[in-house]
Amino acid sequence: MDPAAVEQVLLAVARDAGQHVLLWRGEDLSGNDVDVVVTPDGGAPVARALREAGLVPAPQEPGRVLWRRLPDLDVVVDVLAAHAWPAQYPPLGDVRRRASRGRAGLLVAAPVDRVLVHAAEAVAGRAWPRTAARVVAALADAGPGAREVLAQAERLDPALGRIARRAWAGSAASQEHLPAREVARAVVRSPRARRALRARLLGEPVTRPAATPVEHPRMVALSGMDGAGKSTASLALLDHFERHDEAALLHWTRVGADLGLLVHVGRLARRLLRRDRSVSTVPDESGETAGPGSGAAAQLSRRRGGPLDGVWVLAVALSSVRAARHAGWLRGSGVHVVCDRWLLDAIVDLRLRYGRHRVAEWLLRRGFPRPDVAVLLRVEPAAAAARKPGDQPLAVLEQMARLYDDLASDAGVLVVDAGRAGSDVVAEVLRTQPTRPESLADPA
């Protein structure tokens, strides 16, 4: 990033929406991005300020949007919604109370809170040299008061404070991760450490319920091939809810993207079977998959552990169901949830990557919560390729289109022509919003 350019953007945000923003990792502008968290009612004004500064949004995991200035990426702001603040961190209200104004006029988290955040991240599996360096940097910001900050951290959370003191002592250079005995010791003594370990094992953040629950939270699921405009429509829906002062977040997921420990299990299984690739296979430029269920690769799979491959695909499907159920839990906690990719996308991805697996598809259909509104953004493959040049071969997009059309007929989704102007598509999606409580499905 360009520190001078980033500072100008932060000054603009401070002027237009400063009361809603907290720099929770400090004011260092020399990294890959700037991490901010916004208040429950701050999503829309902060988004407007970033757009006016020339940044473009890219949804990430639930409650997190990466704002970038293209094409140079000289400014990248990682925006976290308050209701997505991980539960292994100190309570956000306490963090805000201890924060102070920084150079740009924005609140900056106090060194003690940054120390506790980095210690929790070490338990959650982040690289120990990096988290230890961040602890040291936070303590350096405290100047002569570094020892008092460590003592305060130990009073707030003795286990995480101990990890911070270990980092301050310099025991990080030769260790990739925090030693297992330190993790175990922290988990025994600290609820936040246990939440961090859970996030590490399950591959998902442990989030808090919304501070001010929405009376009738909704789940809107958007499906469609790459280039259909899901992200644009998702962000428009997010703005729509936030303009009405209602907590909302984006939920983005992809088959096989949230496997947690299964990633390590899969690597071990491949070594035992002497394989040099995953069961998953991305289609080639002809649109043909080389994964299980097709041609010679299917025969190879059956010879080299076919049943194990089937178990792996079921595990991948279950991981997708878990992520979807998490979205349902978020809705139940009082937050509107806008899902960028949902059940149709999961089934299409599954077929493209692994072939046809009826049991895995049955698990997906049974396990995904029912959204209040399900929309398929339909676009011609050539148009999708033009919107995202180089992202997917045209033959793959054509195969996606056939799968979406086959599945949409019995999926109960509203099909929207996404080949029109983006504003027209967003307007039609907004018109699909249920307006009466009795039209809402029960939260999962």
Explain this structure.
This is Thymidylate kinase. This protein is globular. It starts with a helix and ends in a 13-residue tail after the last helix. It is α/β, with parallel strands linked by helices and 444 residues long. β3 and β4 (64-68) form a beta hairpin. It has helices at 3-17, 43-52, 92-98, 111-123, 128-141, 146-156, 158-168, 180-189, 191-202, 230-243, 262-272, 295-303, 306-332, 343-354, 358-367, 381-387, 394-408, 422-431, and strands spanning 21-23, 34-38, 56-59, 64-68, 76-81, 100-101, 107-108, 219-223, 248-252, 336-340, 373-378, 414-417. The protein is 49% helix and 12% strand. It has 2 domains: 3-202, Beta Polymerase, domain 2 (2-Layer Sandwich), CATH 3.30.460; 219-261 and 284-439, P-loop containing nucleotide triphosphate hydrolases (Rossmann fold). The chain has 18 helices and 12 strands. Residues 272-282, 284-305 and 435-444 have low confidence and may be disordered.
Helix content: 40-55%
Distance linking N and C termini: 41 Å
Which strand order does the major sheet show?
A: 3-4-5-2-1-7-6
According to CATH, the fold-level topology of the largest domain is Beta Polymerase, domain 2
What's the CATH architecture of the largest domain?
2-Layer Sandwich
Mean pLDDT, to the nearest integer, reads: 80
- The top level CATH class name of the largest domain: Alpha Beta
- Give unreliable regions as ranges: 272-282, 284-305, 435-444
Counting structural domains, the number is: 2
